[in-house]
Structures are given as C-alpha cells and as structure tokens.
Amino acid sequence: MRSNQTLFACLALAALFTFLFNGVGIGLNLLLFEVVAFGALAVLRRLPLKRDVLITVGGSLLTAVLVVLHGSTLAIVMNVLSVVLAMGVVLAPELGALHHGLVLGFSHMLEAPRALWRSMPGAAASVRGITPRGAVTGAMVPLVVLLFVSLYSASNPIFGELVDDFHAWIGEPSASLPFVFLLGLGLSCFLLLLTRNDRLMRWATGKHDALLPGDAQQSPALRAEVRTGIVLLATLNALLLLLNVLDIHHVWFNFSFTGQYLKQFVHQGTWLLTFSIVLGALIVLYYFRGDLNFHSRNRTIKALSYVWLAQNAVLAISVAVRDYWYIHHYALAYKRIGVAFFLLATLVGLALILQKVRRQRSHHFLARWNMLSVYLIALVMSLFDWDTLIARYNVAQSEKAFVELNFLATLDDKALPYLIRSDLQLENLEAHNRHLIGTERYHRWLYLHQRVYANWIHRRAVSFVKEFEQRSWREWNLADARAFAELRTLEE
Predict the structure, then answer these.
(1) Which residue of 101, 259, 368, 401 is surrounded by the most CB atoms within 10 Å?
(2) Beta-bridge mates of residue 361
(3) Distance separating alpha carbons of residues 120 and 418, to the nearest angstrom
C-alpha cells in the first residue's frame, strides 16, 4: 500500500512540475513545487527532526523563497545544492555529516530511477502482459476525454468559457512537454523515493571525530618528526611574523592611493597569500595526523602550531584589508565580494584546525564541521540581491571611487532602474574616473563611452519591460517586478 501511495505521489508531483515549469523560467514556481514536494516527503516518510535535516530542508525552502525575492542565480544554485544535501541527509540522518550527505545525495540521484521501477506493482509482469489491444485501448482514453470536452464546450457557452479560461491559465502545450514531464518525474523520484547505498554507508559509519592512539607514540621516528616539526614551524613563524609586521604597517595603516591599478595588489596578493594559508594549514594537519597528538613531548610543537594558525589568521585579515582598499577605490564587484566570504570561511577553517589539534580530533571532524560552516556561509551569501546592491553602491560612490561602466552594463535586468543615469551624471562619472587614474590611462578603447553605455542600458530597459509583460505568473519574482514598476514610472 505504501509503495502504491509513493508511486502515485511521484506521478502527481511530476504532473505539478510540468504544469509549473513547462515553457517558463524559474520564480514562484520553484517555491510552490518544493513546498508540495517536502510536504509530501514529510507525510510519506516522516522526516526525522535531526539537526542536519532541519538545516538542509530549511536551507532548501529558504533559498526557494530567496529565488522569489531576488531571482538570483546564486539562490538557484544554492537551492539545488541544498536539495541534494537534504536528500542525502534524509537517507542517513544518523551520520550527522553534510559531506557524507552530499555523497549519498549524488548516489541517490543515480539510484532513484531504479527505485521508481521497483515501486511499480508487478512492473515486469505488467510489461509482458500488455497486448496490442490493451495498448490501443489505453491510448484512446485521453482522446475520448478530449472529444467529450470539445462536445460539451460547443454545446454549452458557459462550459466553453471555463475551458477557454483553463487553456489561457495553463498556456498552450509545447513540444517540450514530454521532456519536462520526464524531468519532473526524475526529480519527483529523487525527492520521494528513498534508497540506501550499503557500500557508502559502511564507509561513512566507519568515520569518527575522535583520534585513537596508536602503537608508535614514543617511537624514534616520531620523536625525530617532532624535532623536525619544531624547527620548521619555528622558522615559518619567524618568516610570517616579518610578513605580517610589514603588511600591518604598509597595508593596514599606511596605504596610499595615487591612482594606481590595484588588481595586482589585490588579485595576485590575495591568491598567493590564500595559497600560503592553505599550505600552512596542511603543514599543521600533516604533523597532527596521528600519534603525534598523543606524544608526551608535543607541547612545544602544539604551541608553535597555535601561533602559526593565529598568524595565518592575521594574514587572512591582511588579505581582507587589501580587498577593502580595492572596494574603497574601485567600488564593488562579484569577485571582491566573493573574496570577503572566502576569507570568512578561511578564518572558520583555521579555528577548526586549532580545535582539532587542541582536542585531538580526526580529519572527519574537520571535514564535517568545515562542510557545515561553508554551507551556512554560502546560505548567508544567497540572502542578498547582489546585482541590485552593487548597482546602488557603485552609483552612489561614483564621485568617490572609480566606477567602470563596462561592468555596470553587465548587471542583471533587476538592477536597471539604478543603472539609468542622466547625461550630466554620466559626464561627471567619466570626468571623475579620468581624474582618478589619469587621462593618459583612461582610453576610449578600454572603457565604455558614456553615450554607448546610455544607449545600451536604454535598449535593455525597453526589452525587459516588453518581456516582463509577457511573463507567466509562475516565473514571477519580486526583484524583477519592482524593476518593471520603476522602469514604467521612469517612462511616464
């Protein structure tokens, strides 16, 4: 009975997916579909009230709401990731590890179609038992229904109006309809049918947070490794101390901007420093991978590791200061925002490594908590409508920072109301840019001319208004609706 209910739910959910997504974009339909899908999953499977289940299912619904509010690509990507994580965690909530849930989720994606086939009552027998007459009879059912709908519509004007309204509501069927239904069926199977990969489960359940002491705690090789680690970490700490002192003096407090490009200052410095932070973390993880955690004379190397991790945190802050100066003088951009959140994840990762060393934890502990922190930070990133925020900030800073018209022209349509500037405003912006970096470097072939920018934004605005008026309610999102209303106001 339970199998029949699940099969019916999969077919019904696939039909709902087809109705909501066929021929339209992503917007309100995503939230409606996932509310129904997770509701059906809760009814059929009784979702366990575990921490990771609540986080990932909540993250899925939160990002679906953010898609309706912002319509951003980041929110859509995070929604897909959240759903995969949620299903992986639902399959094995006892593991309590998102990175295991991610692996199980992708494995389940491959197993779900087979689970659908197995859920069909007498699947193989029913296929063998189909006769040509039975197939023709089954195919005639929808044709007969359509025939009677046509007859009733022609004979009763009121019934005909209802049918016409229904057609207008769902839209005309398209050639993509069968493919959308199959996609919806695959997604419905992924969400409602549960599978269990025994091999992955054995791998996942064998991982633990705590390290266990081995037999080589006092071996000569381990003692030699401790001495080598002390020399290496002491030397690296001295080098990093010098670098941090130089950065604090020259970057934190005495940085001077004279119109120079800061791309190399930030990009090259950021990636090199980030690589050094990751390499430094790997050095600590190498030494504290096993029995050294339980060595009776590991206090010195532990202390040096703590200092090394703290200094790497200062180095990460130096990278953040570089990013701040870049934003201050050259306004916001996607990568500059991404660097800030990446550094936040780096600082959390360094803190987790410190906890691993101090509390004698395993790499599993590190992977488990790092995955959770990265996921939560990515969710925080998706809370913001970055295109609109960038457009508003950069335009507001046009008399203080260098604002590149080339970049503004690539922002999403929902930012268009903030990108429309008067001729005088664009002239002032271009004059400020030229003054900031020097006339000789402000070439026409390198930077978009104000008139070209104004014409391009105008054409985009006209095209967006026409396109939005033809959209279905299913793909509605608040950010585009606001942009449409503001653009219509500007036209008047």
Answers:
(1) 101
(2) 210
(3) 54
| Residue 264 binned pLDDT confidence (cut-offs 50, 70, 90) | low
Phi, psi of 210 (to 5 degrees): -90, 140
Task: List, as one string, the DSSP characters of 61-117.
Answer: HHHHHHHHHH--HHHHHHHHHHHHHHHHHHH-GGG--HHHHHHHHHHHHHHHHHHHH
Q: Per residue in 277-335, pLDDT tens?
A: 888 888 888 888 877 777 777 888 889 999 999 999 999 998 899 889 889 988 999 98
Give the span between the Cα atoms of 487 and 481, in whole angstroms.
10
Is residue 260 within 8 Å of residue 329, measured between CB atoms?
no
How far does CA 473 lie from the centroid of its chain?
Answer: 25
Query: What is d(CA 233, CA 299) in angstroms, rounded to the nearest whole number?
Result: 13
Give the pLDDT band of residue 492 (cuts 50, 70, 90).
low
Contact 19, 170 (CB under 8 A): yes
Cα–Cα distance list, 416 to 388, 455, 481 (Å):
8, 13, 12
Tell me which residue has tokens 């916001």. 332
What span, in angstroms and rounded, lies between the C-alpha atoms of 83 and 52? 12
pTM: 0.84
What phi-psi label fits residue 361: left (phi over 0), alpha (psi between -120 and 50 degrees) or beta?
Answer: beta
- 273 closest CA partner among 321, 332, 214: 321
Q: Which residues of 51-78 are buried (b: 16+ CB within 10 A; e: fewer)?
A: ebbebbbebbbbbbbbbbebbbebbbeb
Tell me, what's the pLDDT at 383? 96
Cβ atoms of residues 197 and 110 within 8 Å = no
pLDDT of 149 > 60? The answer is: yes
The CB-based long-range contact list for 346-353 (8 Å cut-off, 24+ gap) reads 346/274, 346/277, 346/316, 347/313, 347/316, 348/373, 348/377, 349/281, 349/373, 350/277, 350/281, 350/309, 350/312, 350/313, 350/316, 351/313, 353/281, 353/284, 353/285, 353/309
The whole-angstrom separation of Cα 174 and Cα 197 is 38
CA distances from 164 to 20, 148, 183 (A): 19, 15, 28
- Measured over the CA atoms of residue 155, residue 159, residue 164 and residue 170, the dihedral's sign is negative
